[in-house]
Amino acid sequence: MAAAPVEEIRANSYVGFDTITQQIEHKLLKRGFQFNVIVVGQTGLGKSTLINTIFASHLIDSKGRLAPDEPVRQTTEIHPVSHMIVENGVRLRLNIVDTPGYGDQINNENCWDPIVKYIKDQHSAYLRKELTAQRDRHIQDTRIHCALYFINPTGHSLRPVDIIVMKKLSEVVNVVPVIAKADSLTLEERDAFKQRIREELVYNNIRLYPFDTEDNDEEEIQLNETIRSMIPFAVVGSERTVIVDGKPVRGRKNRWGVVNVEDERHCEFVHLRNFMTRTHLQDLIETTAQIHYEAFRSKQLLALKEQTNARPSAAAQ
Question: Which of 57, 77, 85, 113 is most buried (most C-beta within 10 Å)?
């Protein structure tokens, strides 16, 4: 039965409960925030550089082979790294999970299994802590909130492995595809490539983040629509500072000029950064808990219930 509408009453004098938002903010600032991101893509696409560029800090080193005698990775490895970043009094514990070896083999069959398993393992670990009789007051959250999927800038179409992996990942995590090293494409090639990728995502029923919910207002729906029209983000990363018109900017200097990563005319890095940190950071965290983790939790608890119901039947026989 639907709840009856509650009449809105204005207090005759100041009470003070409007300060609850300040109280919540104070508690959250003391506790800090947690954000977990996994980067997926072939070696050499600039995964580490892009993460370092987004968060304006040197957080992870490249895992690519630099010496000819360095052994080639035979499987996809999982390398988590944790940092505490502070900005204007806000502490963000950032977990970055790198996946060196992914997609680098001649036969890439099942190269995605360790990644999907790792994401599910984090859900499983959180569920175990949640179900303990004396659980922690604040459960440490290692669930992956965002998967940045790096697409090779071929200018043609997605590889079969890209389609398979994005489809599998989208079932367990928020997937955000990016075209890596987009400065290797002309603007016309980039736009045509982005359009082909969007068409392939629709054709293969790959549902990517962001999602619209009934809680979204008009402004949020419009913002999500703008983001979806931009996906995949064509990005360039750089930790180096170059001088443009007498001003230091982060960019890549070539013989024919400078690519300023923060210039919207050069690439879409600014849109990706703003999307991940300034407009959708909290929504990425909430969507992980409310959609992906909830689906995993329901499935596990139903399986547990079926096992429990099956035991008395087996004992009776």
Answer: 85
